[in-house]
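Pipeline run #58 for the internal structure catalog. This entry was flagged by the ingest filter as a single-chain record with no existing model, so it goes straight to prediction. Upstream metadata was stripped on purpose; only the residue string is passed forward. Reviewer on rotation: M.T. Logging verbosity set to normal.
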Amino acid sequence: MRDHRPAAPPAPDFPIRMLALDIDGTLVGPDVQLSERIRAAIGEATARGVRVSVATGRMPSSAVVFAEQLGLTEPLIGHQGAVIRAMPEALRPGERRRAPSAPGDPRVREGHIVPFGGRTGRLLHHEPMPADVVRDAIRWCRDNDLDPHINHLERIIAELHDPRFADYSSYLGKDAEGVADLLDAVHGPMTKVISVGEAGRPMELIEDARRTGATDADLEPLFRSAEGYLRMWERAEARGAALR
């Protein structure tokens, strides 16, 4: 697989007209909370006329929770750029937004609130993986002792016997869909495949996948906590392409 990254970072072009910011590790840390410093910095940027958007691997329905807290209005770039959604329209009379998780909610991790779902606007762009590539990715994950699941737009689909399905369900509630066989759930193009393995295992596999072209998808390792995640989506530098 070809490395699409530039040989050197591009020179800055001033004045800055737009900021596209990741969420995890950029806007929020391990506590998954927006600090007052971040809120103030984003507020200062927008006050100066800078357009601010979030560009993340999260689903737009997750990203919107943070975007709304920051008062952002630009479209949401989710799933590494495979999905772009508008911010939601104003609430209708009597309508209430879906609230983020609160203390006591099973989605709370290590004493911190983990906001998950929010209302999003209309779909502006979707670049899914072809169905045959999704199936190839699932088989490759299984062959390499990884547990795959599918992200499709705002859905997470996992096998009922996946050892981590209970974690998905406790985090996503009714939004986690369980199926007997993940391959049978692939009826057409789908947004992204994520696989989970023991810490360090995805990194061991990533170069082999790139070298052998295990699938037509582009691969990126992502690590959180003590677990290893490997995400597969349709093309490299998708966030940058989405911004363009």
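catalog note: Residues 99-115, 215-227 have pLDDT under 50 and may be disordered.
catalog note: The longest strand covers residues 192-198.
status: ready for reviewer M.T.
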